[in-house]
Write a structure and sequence with these properties.
29% of the residues lie in helices and 26% in strands. By secondary structure, it is α/β, with parallel strands linked by helices. Helix 3 (122-134) packs across helix 9 (271-286). It is globular, with a radius of gyration of 20 Å. The model has no long low-confidence stretch (mean pLDDT 96).
Length: 323
């Protein structure tokens, strides 16, 4: 019997239920995947709490790696025995086996382990589209990146270093600062004792930065705006501290600032684009420029505990569930 985390109502971690489920054969265009690792992302908390709408009852999670067990009629993208990962498709990754649309499955190179790949599907691909598409970095830039010791952040530290980008990262503690520095972050601001915008101005000789990548949201909005150069870009790629509400007049006052709220679906589709993104990511991993392993692991049945750890900011790097 297969197992999955099911959600019948929104709320705290206690609403996550570990249940027996029936998984049938894949239909046309589908593949059945047995998971080895399931990633826990902050967006999962948004769905669990109702911040993002989700029809109920439902599964949870959109990011996992595993092996293809069986494919349905007409599937040409993958075959049984292929190691794959995914970050798009319907909710329900919190499970040990499931049926998925074959078109969203990404082949994993032999040289990349399942444990490494489990930290790269959503998080590594997020770093790719932030740095290579939303505001393309070419080398030589100075940037501000919030939550530099998080799951995406530690990959971003390494990617910035590989590109020759000076990354100023923010973290909440001195311990996280050391982790971010070890991953390649050029300078680190500890938000519990330093003024973000003031420190950015000091580090840039008063100029500010051309782009801020901000996954924190409400708590860092003003600091992000005050750190930008005139006509700078605020990339609001998350709201872990709460939603961002901006008076457009403020954008003019702060220097004619550009703001974007990107979503993966608009950068990783169609399939050819998703595979191109993955190729660039995996190439950096295989070249030794990005190293990534889970920071914390929980059993699938402990999904609620994983959410509590993530929400309380007890984690660094990627958090995964092991079926």
């Amino acid at each position: 019997m297969a197992h999955a985390i099911r959600l019948y109502e929104t709320g705290g971690p206690e609403v996550l239920r570990y249940e027996n489920v029936d998984v049938g054969a894949p239909g046309p265009g589908q593949a059945r995947v047995r998971h080895s690792y399931v990633a826990v992302n902050f967006i999962d908390i948004y769905f669990r709490t109702g911040r993002y709408p989700l029809s109920l009852p439902n599964g949870l999670g959109s990011d996992a790696v595993g092996v293809v067990e069986e494919v349905g009629p007409g599937v040409t993208e993958v075959k049984p025995g292929d190691r794959v990962g995914y970050l798009l498709g319907p909710q329900g990754a919190y499970s040990d086996v499931r049926v998925m649309p074959a078109e969203v499955l990404i082949p994993i190179p032999d040289a990349v382990s399942d444990s490494t790949a489990s930290t790269l599907m959503m998080k590594g691909m997020t770093a790719q589209y932030l740095f290579r598409q939303v505001y393309p970095l070419h080398g030589g830039e100075t940037i501000l990146y919030h939550a530099a010791a998080g799951g995406v952040g530690l990959i971003a530290c390494q990617w910035a270093k590989a590109l020759g980008v000076r990354m100023i990262g923010t973290v909440s503690t001195d311990a996280k600062a050391e982790i971010a520095k070890a991953a390649g972050c050029s300078e680190v601001i500890v938000t519990s004792r330093e003024d973000i915008a003031k420190r950015v101005r000091e580090l840039t000789d008063g100029k500010g930065v051309p782009v801020v990548y901000d996954s924190v949201g409400k708590d860092t909005l003003m600091a992000s705006l005050d750190s930008l150069q005139p006509r700078g870009h605020l990339v609001s790629n998350g709201t872990s501290s709460g939603p961002v509400v901006i008076d457009t007049t403020l954008l003019a006052v702060k220097g004619s600032i550009w703001v974007t709220r990107p979503a993966m679906i608009h950068y990783a589709t169609p399939r050819a684009k998703m595979l191109e993104m993955a190729d660039e990511l995996f190439a950096l991993v295989q070249a030794g420029k990005i190293r990534s392993e889970p920071g914390r692991s929980f059993a699938l049945s402990e999904a609620a505990e994983a959410h509590r750890a993530l929400e309380s900011r007890q984690t660094t790097g990627a958090t995964v569930l092991v079926p």
